[in-house]
What does this fold into?
Amino acid sequence: MKRAVTVYAFVAVVLSMTSLTANGASEFFLGSISSSTLGGNVTTTLPMFNIALGTLTGVQVTLDFTVTPYAEVYNFSSSTPLTFTPSDSITFSFSPADIWTVTCGTDSWTLSAPTVTTGPIYGSGQVIPEYTFLQLVGSTSAPADLTAASGLDLAAYTGAGNLVFGTTGSGYVSITDGALYGGGGGDLAGTASVTYDYAPVPEPSSLCLLIGGLGLLVWTNHARRRNLPIKPARRGY
It folds into this structure.
């Protein structure tokens, strides 16, 4: 009988530990990408992981960008305004060869830029003051997606607030006005999602079961060593 009680106590402890080490949980969030510019930070509506739920064990991120390219005309002159004349034009374009990067903490992923361009934008006599740029938005847009990227820097996804990602990328600019300089970039928007895998915090009932099982195991071992009688529990009728 003593051995049977000890076995029962051991089984109780094992069951308790099994409930505590059950399969992990996951949370999925779908959100949006705030209007931003390539080369800067991209803020999303995705919440960071709440450590009150447990220990974060894995992250999957998807960012579905909609990219609208823009061209810029610069006046680096320190003495006079310059005119972007109707006979001049500027274009700015991205191609898949223009690799972009997306970062979060120490995590970094690359993706191909979309094949998208502002197309030629002709001047209309705009006067551009000294050390000033004129931004000219193109009419086309295209997707550039980062799908199911796995995060390793788990601390970067934990805390309060929303997830923020850094971006870098470059394209190709062409300008026919020899007195002005050209540049460009991409306006970003779109949707985003994140999946958090985590080990949940044990429920109070599981902790009580574990403590009770351990206590019973300790008591039965103590009783066996002192050769104390162990009475079986009465059965209810």
User: Anything to note?
Assistant: Residues 24-199 form one domain. Residues 102 and 140 are 22 Å apart (CA to CA).
